[in-house]
Hints:
Elements: H1 18-31, E1 40-41, H2 44-51, H3 55-67, E2 71-74, E3 78-81, E4 86-89, H4 95-101, E5 106-116, H5 119-124, E6 133-142, E7 145-154, H6 163-168, H7 171-177, E8 184-192, H8 196-201, E9 210-218, E10 224-233, E11 237-240
Parallel strand pairs: 4-11
Antiparallel strand pairs: 1-3, 2-3, 5-6, 6-7, 7-10, 8-9, 9-10
Amino acid sequence: MRAQQVHVTIDRSSPVPLYHQLAEQLSASITNGMLQPGDPFENEVAVAERLQLSRPTVRRAIQELVDQGLLVRRRGLGSTVANKKVHRNLKLSSLYDDLESDSRHPRTTVLDFLHETDERAASGLDLPPDTQLLHVTRLRLADDLPLALMHNWLPPAHDDLTREELEDGGLYAALRDRGIKPVVARQSIAARMPTAAERRHLELVGSQPVLTMTRMAFDAAGNAVEFGDHCYRAADYTIDLMVDER
């Protein structure tokens, strides 16, 4: 596929550095949808010749886009527009809600919906190990692209959820409809190589890793709400942290 040329206007009389002018306009072409994920990006030699800029100026502008996660460079293949990432603040929220607020059109496929015992999940929910829990496995897609494989276990008090509810919306929305609101959680985040099932469902290739998150959530009274064990396509998912030094 031939790289699409982006119209760029360079003002050489402006105090704004040339590389920054170029980077801003190239960035806008990606964020406004003119260039789509996977599209090939014009190489620096062609951009430099077309705009009559030096190669170091163009190289610096393109590197800014790489640093922002908007472009991906592959040796021998040139640069392509990166996949849209889900930027998720580290707060107690639903991935479904986060995708909707980011206009990403979430969709859910329920893969498993069963009652079982699970010592790890029961321990996370402060319940006896032989407690019957509702175990739901869901594949979450964003814009029809697989993003997350999610396992959730719910205590007996909340096991009246239906498969249809979870395919039509998010887990936390279904809980809110029942007057249940998670307010505090303990989360652990890590990265690892995917299992065979995760690789298949998330359509991963080669040595692509997954980002994992386990969560134990409780309501204001300290009652267990859910235990989650999720994995995400690491290339398409970012967790943002606010660090406050006081």
